[in-house]
Every structure is written in C-alpha cells, then in structure tokens.
Design the sequence.
C-alpha cells in the first residue's frame, strides 16, 4: 500500500492532546486542503468557524456533552452547512431564488462533510490527531447563538485538532464483503458476517488500552435505535430556513 492508503486505514479518534500548538500557517493549509474537496456544482456550501475564544470553547464543550478535549485541543473548528452565501450570490446574479428545498439541505450537509474529511486527512498526514464532535447537535440553537450563525446556516459537527497525547488502537471495521456489493444490494450473508464482526469487536473492546468493556458492535447500536435521537433537530432546522420542501 502507498502511504496515503496506509494513512486512511490507520485513522483513530484522538481525545487527549499535548499542549503544543499548531502554527497558524499549518492550520490555514489544512483548511485550504479542505477547500479542495469535491463540491456539488461548485456551490462550496460550507463555512468553517475557528473557535479561538476560550470562554466560548468551554461553553461549547459543556453543550456538546461535557467533551473537555474541545477546551484543550490546539484548534477547535465547527463545520457549518452554509446556504446563505450561495443563495445571496444567486440573488445578486438576478435569480428568482427558491430556498428551503430538501436537496439544497443535502448538498450543503454533504459539502461540509466532504470538506471536513479532507481537513482530517491533511491533519493526520502532518502528525496531528482529530476528533469529530457530533455532540454539537445536542444543543444546536445555543451553539448557533454563540457562533452568531445567521439563517440558512447550521452547525453540522465540530472537530478537535491537535498533537496526540495518546496512541489508541485502530478500531476494526465491518468486513469488506459486508459493505461492498456487486450490481445489487444483497444482504444474504450479512447476519453471519455481522455475528463474526461482533466477536471481533468484543475482543477489541476487552483488549484496548483505555475504557475496556465487554460489548459488541450490535449492542453498541441499541441506544441509537431504541430512543428518539435528537428529536429537536427537525424543528431547529426548519427555524433556520431549512424547510425540507
């Protein structure tokens, strides 16, 4: 494998960082690398908020589920799906703008995710570690107020970036044959393959360096599908102008 493939297959979430700070030049290079990601119709519907104010970082850490590494990492950023800028540009160009469409929401959210993953890869190639923060969506309205986000912009997730102060093991992934199908969706072997993977994950959780536990992949999924996960998001998005028409 070439070094890029090795890097991609060795990703770990880092939740403990050293005190070393990344240079602003390197940080800007990471964001420029993010801009190189694919973007639907060149819409570039993503804005990145670099949260430097320590007080705001501490508030966001609490609102995102008391994830203290938000406060302590070198750089913390929030990736926002941003339709305000492209809608305004189209309006200035003379378009009779239609907003609130579901496809617009999908495009902006995908743009943010693609840009973020480019930033993550660029950061890891420089020896940095990252951790995505989906907990941003626990309290999206409050975090939007902190970041002064206007309508047609919403925070998709955050990202901690910094120099790692831990060496967690790479978490196993589902077997390739489980997620790679040929010509059509065929799940005839999924049950057996998932059962085998569950045992792989049980061994991983028992043996890993930190936070040992005795569980499986399937058991870890139960909270996601036995409770209404972040039910506030639909109304929050509607109020921000993402009407899903």
Sequence:
């Amino acid at each position: 494998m070439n070094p890029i493939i090795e890097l991609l297959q060795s990703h770990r979430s880092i939740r403990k960082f050293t005190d070393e700070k990344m240079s602003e030049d390197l940080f800007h290079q990471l964001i420029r690398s993010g801009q190189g990601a694919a973007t639907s119709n060149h819409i570039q519907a993503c804005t990145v908020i670099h949260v430097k104010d320590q007080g705001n970082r501490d508030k966001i850490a609490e609102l995102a589920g008391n994830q203290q590494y938000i406060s302590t990492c070198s750089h913390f950023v929030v990736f926002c799906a941003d339709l305000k800028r492209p809608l305004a540009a189209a309006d200035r160009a003379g378009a009779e703008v239609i907003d609130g469409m579901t496809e617009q929401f999908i495009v902006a959210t995908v743009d943010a995710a693609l840009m973020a993953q480019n930033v993550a890869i660029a950061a890891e190639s420089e020896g940095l570690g990252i951790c995505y923060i989906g907990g941003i969506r626990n309290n999206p309205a409050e975090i939007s107020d902190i970041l002064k986000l206007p309508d047609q912009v919403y925070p998709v997730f955050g990202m901690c970036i910094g120099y790692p102060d831990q060496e967690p093991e790479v978490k196993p992934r589902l077997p390739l044959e489980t997620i790679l199908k040929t010509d059509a969706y065929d799940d005839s072997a999924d049950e057996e393959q998932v059962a085998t993977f569950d045992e792989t994950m049980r061994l991983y959780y028992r043996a890993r360096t930190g936070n040992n536990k005795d569980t499986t992949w399937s058991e870890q999924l139960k909270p996601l599908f036995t409770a209404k996960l972040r039910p506030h998001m639909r109304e929050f998005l509607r109020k921000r102008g993402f009407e899903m028409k």
